[in-house]
Amino acid sequence: METAILTIKIYGNVERALSSASFMLENELKDLDAKAEVSLGPDGWLQVAATGDDGEFAINFLKEKFGTPVTYVDDKAVYRGFISSIDEDGITVDIGISLKIPSSELSVLGAGTCPQIASRFGLIPYLPVYIRVLKQDNGTFASFTKKQVDLFWSWKKLPTDRLTVNSVTRSELKSAIKKKGHGRDIYGIERLGLLENLVVCREKTDGPGIVAEIGPLLNAEIGVIKGTR
């Protein structure tokens, strides 16, 4: 049996999150002779064990795709992690260790304080992101990769609003939207992570209005990206 810890956060309803993880990994490995068993690993990371003739290949494939939490970092290397907190001084990202993206590194996302920038781009806790390590004389910090920054701007520059939502599965989010009669007001839901999703609104749909409707149905944090109309 091959095992690994993946850079996938398990939080909120742990049983539901593990069930969703099992389904997701089953789909990822559908073409292999391998079966994945999931469990809650250290610090809330997803632990996976794979059995079958392709078990070793499956584990290596999953580690390559999702990454593994780290205990040390290399200068200028790129890592996948999750936003853990946002404050006036910057955005903290958990990659196995916590690294701060200082406010000075957020100028690529426009003017304003760190909370203002985060609000503008729908940045919320547990949002999966890619960062680059910056080792300086006064410590080790991080910045968003250019690809990540370009993705944020692509959301902002499109003419329709978008919502970032954490702590819910795609099916739960879709159910809440339909229950409030807003199925026709969105183009669809994009999976950003295991429990993190992006709702793409239709033209003339007001993102904050959707949040006001579905928010009470979801135990989740929701960010809004206002489109450029």
Automatic annotation (TrEMBL):
InterPro entries: DUF2110_C, DUF2110_central, DUF2110_N
Coiled coil: none
Domain of life, source organism: Archaea
Ranges where the DUF2110 domain occurs: 5-70, 76-156, 160-225
Protein name stated in the entry: DUF2110 family protein
